[in-house]
Every structure is written in C-alpha cells, then in structure tokens.
C-alpha cells in the first residue's frame, strides 16, 4: 500500500520518468510497483524546482522595478523618474556624474546641465544637483540589488513549510 504525500505534479513526472505509474483508485493509491514508487515518493524533493521558479520571479521583479526608474524630486519641485533601465543608462549616469564632479572642482555653480527625465522633461541642474541625482539613482539600483540578494538568501534557506513572500524586502517606491 502506498503512503502518498502530496508533493506536486513533479512527483508524478518523476514516477513516470522511472517507468512507473501511480493512480488513485476508489480512494486508494495504487502503483505499478509499490516499493519502488514509495521510494520515489519518500525521496522526492519538490523544492529545487520551486526555488528556481522563485529565483526567476525575484530576478524579473528586480528588473521590472529598475526599468520603472527612480522617483525623483527635481530642484524645480517637479517630480519625475531617472532612467536606470539598463547598462547604457547607468553608463550615461556615470558619465554625467564624472562631468559634474569636474565642474564642481572647477567652481561651476550655474545650472549648466540639462537633465532629461524618463517622462521626457528637461531640468536645468547645477553640477552639485547632478551629483546628488546620480547618487540617488545609484542608491536606488543598489537597494534593488540588495533586496534581490536578500531574497536569494531567503529562498536558499526556505524549507517550503509556508508560502514564500516575493513581495518582501523591496524598497519603497
């Protein structure tokens, strides 16, 4: 007689892959080979596949949040978003941050940097303001990666005894 423990469809796939079958007939679990099938049931661990799904969900959520941009209040008081979608956006921010630092060292205090936000609005900014904007963007991207890493660690330690909360750890928008 089979002592069935629900472990998901992957268990049934593993039983079939081993050349066996498992069916519930008249409320009782029956199999092609009770000893072999019971051994598969007892040894089957559904968590690796579930963890892989969770890792993928968390990675996708980090990308989604990063692609949404960094909320920012510009010196004019207007709100917008700083684009940090990809490596090119980050390289652009690094470039303007470098230029801003050079301008700060040269004593420039006028709003000589036109910054275009994600909403396609241009904001005239001083070198100091550009430097602060770039730090805010970098801090946001760093916080998103830190949240992903916290998820990665939590998923690795997750024992499956409770649903995993992929909404935890993320910074406020």
Mean of residue pLDDT values: 93
Please tell me the total number of domains: 2
**Strand adjacency order, main sheet:** 1-2
Low-confidence stretches: none
How big a fraction of the residues is strand? 5-15%
The Cα radius of gyration reads 26 Å
Instruction: Characterize the main sheet.
Output: 2 strands, antiparallel
Q: Based on CA inertia axes, which overall geometry fits?
A: rod-shaped
Count of DSSP helices? 5
Q: What is the terminal-to-terminal distance?
A: 54 Å
Helix content: 40-55%
Going by helix content, strand content and strand pairing, the class is: alpha+beta
Q: Helix and strand string, N-terminal first? A: HEEHHEEHEEH
Number of strands: 6
Topology, pairings included?
Elements lengths: L8 H9 L4 E4 L2 E4 L2 H10 L3 H21 L2 E4 L5 E4 L4 H19 L7 E4 L5 E4 L1 H31 L16
Antiparallel strand pairs: 1-2, 3-4, 5-6
Descriptive account of the structure:
The chain is α+β, with helices and mostly antiparallel strands and 173 residues long. It folds into two domains: 9-44, no CATH class; 48-157, no CATH class. The chain is 52% helix and 14% strand. It has five helices and six strands. The protein has helices at 9-17, 34-43, 47-67, 87-105, 127-157, and strands at 22-25, 28-31, 70-73, 79-82, 113-116, 122-125. The strands form three sheets. The protein has a two-stranded antiparallel sheet. Helix 3 (47-67) runs antiparallel to helix 5. The radius of gyration is 26 Å and the shape is rod-shaped. The termini are far apart. The model has no long low-confidence stretch (mean pLDDT 93).
């Amino acid at each position: 007689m089979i002592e069935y423990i629900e472990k998901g469809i992957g268990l049934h796939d593993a039983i079939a892959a081993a050349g066996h079958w498992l069916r519930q007939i008249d409320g009782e679990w029956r199999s092609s080979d009770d000893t072999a099938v019971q051994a598969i049931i007892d040894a089957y661990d559904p968590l690796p596949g579930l963890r892989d799904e969770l890792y993928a969900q968390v990675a996708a959520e980090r990308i989604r949040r990063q692609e949404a941009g960094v909320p920012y209040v510009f010196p004019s008081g207007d709100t917008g978003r700083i684009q940090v979608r990809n490596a090119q956006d980050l390289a652009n921010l690094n470039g303007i941050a470098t230029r801003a630092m050079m301008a700060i060292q040269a004593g420039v205090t006028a709003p000589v940097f036109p910054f275009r936000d994600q909403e396609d609005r241009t904001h005239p900014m001083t070198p100091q303001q550009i430097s602060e904007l770039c730090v805010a963007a970098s801090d946001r991207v760093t916080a998103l990666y830190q949240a992903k890493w916290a998820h990665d660690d939590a998923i690795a330690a997750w024992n499956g005894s409770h649903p995993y909360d992929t909404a935890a750890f993320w910074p406020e928008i």
